[in-house]
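This section describes the prediction task in plain terms. A model, or a person checking by hand, is given the sequence of a single protein chain and must write out its three-dimensional structure as a string of tokens. No templates, partner chains or ligands are provided. The sample shown here is typical of the held-out split.
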Amino acid sequence: MEFKVLIADDDPGMRLVLRKIVEQAEGFSIAGEACDGVEAVEIAASLKPDVVFLDVEMPRLSGVDAAREINRTVPGAALIIATAHAQYMPEAFEVYAADYLVKPFKVDRVRQTLNKLRANFEKQNRENASGVQKLMIRNHDGMILVDVGDIIFIQREDRNTVICTTDGSYSTSDSLNKLWEKLDHRLFMRSHRSYIINTSAVKMIYPYGRWTYIVKFKYGDQDALITHEKFEELQEILEG
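The expected answer:
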């Protein structure tokens, strides 16, 4: 299987350099090229590339702003920000870039990035083929793949979303709605406007106020909230 690459840079010479590197890399092929940020967003939405190289300073729309749009339309794409100015690095990680290349970069540096991405993609494909479901979480550390079955609950807290699992917690700026769309609704429930719970992990429920309940889980000592309406729905699920 070959992974599709989109190159976006207003410099034709830089596009040529990246194209040759990609063409020589095992497992990758060029899906398209863009000369400005708006074109990059449009092509990405159409071709759904696996990897996108983005120059920061492009006409019409900057690489960072284009990255934000691509994150929304192609959430699984790995973004690689390339620029001659290192001061853009914090912005690159704000859009969850998989890597940051400072021009002029060495060919081996790009190859190293592509090799790492290929290994990650192939691992994800193997796990998907074996029936292990994964949830991709983007944060300032990059991209993390979490086994869906390990998720206990997800909570919206202080403008961040926290995914609590059996082996730790992970924070992301992705909304609850965005994560809810990716989950199996036969296993997970939107129990409250601020919570998604794994119904198979529920251990105990008890009242908290007039219309709300607290949910305790089989793992750890954290808890979640569930509304009265959702509590009745959960009762039906657990009873059978």
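For orientation: Residues 107-129 form the longest helix (23 residues).
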